[in-house]
Structure formats: structure tokens, C-alpha cells
Design brief:
This protein folds into two domains: about 110 residues, Roll (Ubiquitin-like (UB roll)), CATH 3.10.20.70; about 260 residues, Creatine Kinase, Chain A, domain 2 (2-Layer Sandwich). About 35% of the residues lie in helices and about 20% in strands. Strands 7, 8, 9, 10, 11, 12, 13, 14, 15 and 16 form a ten-stranded mixed β-sheet that branches. With about 525 residues, the chain is α+β, with helices and mostly antiparallel strands.
Length: about 525
């Protein structure tokens, strides 16, 4: 008999009511939740062409109606959700709930909410839907390698607003892991953490980040003169499709909590020159069944993980097309800002594109070293090693980015000779910018326009087996080209310093609500 569901403060209430893991929830379990919690609405969420959640609200009117909705989903206009990608003459789509994603809406506790998938008229996953592209890329990787890719996002963002008390101001670029009274947004972060943890069950931690702007200088009246403090919420490893949903859902929660309290949350990659940018780093790990196979018993990288690194290096330049989708992204990807500019990897090194961080591979039970009274040691539960890619930021289309990373992993693992050679050639020790190999390393793109050109050159990497339909690649290319930043760096470099700052701020602040 299964163990009874353990109840902790932030356990998902649906799992408690159903007394089972969320992955095992059925339609009957959901009807039980609707009755017990007196649910009045069912809300379907799905990720649209802009990478954000959309919703459809359905009033609960009886068991037969609920069973039908949970079984068949609903019909929507796909040409509006994927505007410019599919024609209105054949645009109907079904949105069908994923039961394991069910949650009580924290902003409307009478609503039972779901993440949905898009199904077409033939009953197949709609091939152009970004979450389905990720699902197909995930399946290709598993089929061809026998391995699963898991991921976690490091979601960085700025909270912009006015505080009643400005005592104990933070210093510029000194916000990393700062506490109250210097940080005044603790109540906001706690509320966000509670909701995200209860819904996803996969939060690792939150902390204040480096960035702090006491008074934003801008022509945008929504942010002019306000204070901006940077925060990071990091997840735990999940299967890569769940990791994407976690990031998109968390972004929705963060924006709503901020809005509720009169603040603006923005994941925009850069708010001002000389201040920290916001990244969306992803840690990845290869799994064989339930076992993380990134490192071996001695804590060394396995051949498979080196192939993963080689695959990421092979795809790195074109991945920016999905991970860095606005002009301001490339104001963050500059030397000496803990943001990558070259295709390389290293251990522990935050100036590298790909980093292999500390992961308790060679040491464990550290608390017993400083707490000698702790005699009983905890048995290690397996490797916690990850491989981190540091180029993406908050402008990323999360599902397309992780689909691209999945294909990069599959390429690396099925082209071992080439990927291992690439891993060897792209390894850097120490500060990347001080390395004598700096000029030998390939550069990341420096604009959306350049990313679009590289994606066009390498579209075959993504269109393999029609994982990325040609219409999706064409859409992304056009989207990037519309940023019209082909000669942005030359323009900014040619301007006098004061004009350069003004023009940079105009670019950084014009569309910050989009991300």
C-alpha cells in the first residue's frame, strides 16, 4: 500500500486532497477536488506565440459538464494565439488539460487551473505549438539516446516601484544576497515563493541579486524615478518539458504578485548601462532512468556529459535566436559582466558560456564537519551535477529555447567523435577574457539581426525530422529582424557618451513590458 501523502506547509493542496503524487492524478480525483474546494471555475492556461500564458475561463455547472471539459478540452481560435503563423481559414485548435499540472489559482481560489496542450483537428499535437515542439524534441532525444534531459531555470527579474521607507539604501551593484532592512521587497518574494512552490513543488531557493537602481532614469513615465531591485528564483531539476512550464507559470505568478502590490516585475535583460542585467540561465542534467549520469562515482564528468557540452557548443550561436530575442539582450552579453561573449566552457567559471558548477561530487555531509554532534550521516541520493548554459535571458521563448537545447544534446550524443573534439577545443581554464585562447574562440552574435542570420544558416539543425516546422523558424527570423538592430553596436559606439546613454536607455525601456 502506498505511503500516505506527507503534508508540509507548501504541499500542493490537490495532492493532499487526492492523497497521491500529482503525476498520478485522474479525472475522478479532479472532480473530488472541485467538490471539496467548492470550485466555481475551471481555467485553462496555454502558452501563446509570445511565450506568455493565455487563459480560458469555464464556469462549473455540473458533473457531466465538468467530465466533458476535463475529457475533451475546449475549442479556441489558433490564428489569434499564433497570429501570423497559421491562417484563419483553418485555425481551430483544441486545448486539452494536463491533469498533473492542476492547481488552485492563488489569485482566485474558486478556480481550478491547468496548463493545456494544443491538439489539432486530427487529434495530433499541433506541430507549430511551441510546447509541442519541445515535447517532440524531448522524445527524439530519448528515442535516439536512451537518456532524458532534465533542466532548471534561474529566473532573474527586477521589481520596480516606490518604497515608503528609503532608509538603509543598497549600494549600486551590491545587492547579491542582501537582506532587510537594505532589501525591502521580502514580503513580495515570500508571497511569490509560496505560490510557485505550492503549485510546482520544484523551487530550490530565492535571493536578492546584484542589481539595484535607486532612481531609474527614463523617458518612460511608468518607471521614471522609481527604484528597481533585482531578485532570483531558482528551480530544482525537472524533465525538460516540465521545466519550461515551470518558468512560464512562475513568470505569470511573479507579475501578478507584483501588480497586486503596486509594483512592476520585468524580466527584461537590461535596464541601464553599468547595472546588472537579468539572465535566464538553465542548468541541465542527463538522466538514465532515475539516475543523473552527468558525473561518475569519482565526481568526474562522464563521456555523455562531455557530449552534452559539445552539442551545446555546436548549437550555441544559433540558440541565441530563441534565448536572446530583443536588442537589449546584446547589451547584456558584453565582456567583464559575468555574461558570455564567446563559445566556450569551464569549471565554476561565470565568464564562460557553459559552466560546470560545484555539485557535492567530491564532498558531502558537510554539516557534520562543523556540527560534530551529528553522528548519523545522510546517505547521498545520487549525483547533483549539472551543466549550465548562461547566455539566455528573460526575453527568451522558453519552450523553443529548451527544444533547441534538447536537439543540441541529441546531436552531441549521436555524433560523439565530433562533439567530444568540440568539447576539448572549447575548454577554457580561468578567466575567459584573460585567456591566451580568447581570440581563437567563436563569438556569440551581437544583435538580433545577427542571430537571425545565423539561425537561417543553421536552420537544418532545428528542422531535422520537422521538429521545428519551417514556419516557426521563419517566424523567429522575422521577429528578430523586426528589432532592426543590424548596426546597433556601430551606432552606439559612434555617439558621444551622453547621447550613447540616452539612446541605450531608449532601446532598453521601449518594450520592457513585453518581457
Amino acid at each position: 500500500m502506498a505511503d500516505k501523502m506527507e503534508k508540509f506547509a507548501l504541499t500542493n493542496p490537490i495532492s493532499i486532497i487526492c492523497d497521491k503524487d500529482h503525476r498520478d492524478i485522474t479525472r475522478d480525483d479532479l472532480i473530488k477536488v472541485i467538490k471539496e474546494k467548492e470550485i466555481e471555475r475551471i481555467t485553462f492556461h496555454y502558452t501563446a506565440i509570445d511565450g506568455k500564458l493565455r487563459e480560458l475561463i469555464i464556469p462549473v455547472q455540473g458533473r457531466q459538464q465538468v467530465e466533458l471539459i476535463l475529457t475533451e478540452g475546449e475549442r479556441i481560435d489558433g490564428s489569434s494565439i499564433f497570429k501570423g503563423m497559421i491562417d484563419s481559414s483553418s485555425s481551430d485548435l483544441y486545448v486539452v488539460p494536463v491533469y498533473k499540472t492542476a492547481f488552485i489559482n492563488p489569485f482566485d481560489t474558486k478556480s481550478l487551473d491547468f496548463i493545456c496542450r494544443f491538439i489539432n483537428k486530427d487529434g495530433d499535437f499541433a506541430p507549430f505549438a511551441f510546447d509541442n515542439i519541445l515535447y517532440n524534441a524531448k522524445n527524439r532525444l530519448e528515442k535516439n539516446t536512451g537518456l532524458e534531459l532534465h533542466a532548471l531555470g534561474e529566473l532573474e527579474f527586477f521589481l520596480i516601484g516606490r518604497y515608503q521607507n528609503n532608509d538603509y539604501p543598497l549600494e549600486k551593484q551590491k545587492g547579491y544576497h542582501a537582506t532587510a532592512p537594505y532589501v525591502k521587497s521580502g514580503y513580495l518574494i515570500n508571497e511569490m515563493l509560496n505560490y510557485i512552490t505550492q503549485i510546482s513543488g520544484r523551487v530550490k531557493y530565492a535571493h536578492n541579486e546584484v542589481g539595484y537602481i535607486e532612481h531609474i532614469e527614463s523617458e518612460n513615465p511608468d518607471i521614471k524615478g522609481k527604484t528597481a531591485g533585482q531578485v532570483e528564483i531558482e528551480f530544482q531539476l525537472s524533465p525538460i518539458d516540465e521545466a519550461a512550464d515551470n518558468v512560464v507559470l512562475a513568470s505569470w505568478i511573479i507579475r501578478n504578485v507584483a501588480y497586486k502590490h503596486g509594483f512592476i516585475a520585468t524580466f527584461f535583460p537590461k535596464l541601464d548601462i553599468g547595472h546588472a542585467g537579468s539572465g535566464l540561465h538553465f542548468h541541465t542534467a542527463l538522466y538514465k532512468g532515475d539516475t543523473n549520469v552527468v558525473s561518475d562515482a569519482e565526481g568526474e564528468l562522464t563521456e555523455d556529459s562531455r557530449c552534452l557540452i559539445g552539442g551545446m557548443c555546436h548549437y550555441a550561436q544559433s540558440l541565441t535566436a530563441f534565448g536572446n530575442m530583443c536588442s537589449a539582450s546584446y547589451m547584456r552579453l558584453v565582456p567583464h559582466q559575468e555574461a558570455p561573449t564567446k563559445v566556450c566552457w569551464s569549471d565554476l567559471n561565470r565568464s564562460a558560456l557553459i559552466r560546470v558548477p560545484l555539485a557535492w561530487t567530491k564532498v558531502n555531509n558537510l554539516a557534520s564537519k562543523i556540527n560534530p554532534q551529528q553522528k548519523e550521516l545522510l546517505k547521498p541520493s545520487g549525483s547533483r551535477q549539472t551543466v549550465e548554459i548562461r547566455s539566455p535571458d528573460g526575453s527568451a521563448n522558453t519552450h523553443l529555447l529548451l527544444a533547441g537545447i534538447s536537439l543540441a544534446a541529441e546531436w552531441g550524443l549521436t555524433n560523439k567523435k565530433d562533439s567530444l573534439a568540440l568539447t576539448k577545443n572549447c575548454h577554457v581554464i580561468g578567466n575567459v577574457h584573460a585567456s591566451n585562447r580568447y581570440d581563437e574562440l567563436s563569438e556569440l552574435p551581437t544583435s538580433c539581426w545577427e542571430s537571425a542570420e545565423i539561425l537561417l544558416q543553421h536552420r537544418n539543425l532545428y528542422e531535422v525530422d520537422n521538429i521545428f516546422p519551417t514556419s516557426v523558424i521563419s517566424y523567429v527570423v522575422k521577429y528578430l529582424q523586426n528589432e532592426n538592430d543590424r548596426n546597433l553596436n556601430q551606432l552606439l559606439t559612434s555617439l558621444p557618451e551622453e547621447e550613447k546613454i540616452e539612446e541605450s536607455r531608449r532601446i532598453m525601456h521601449k518594450n520592457f513590458y513585453k518581457h
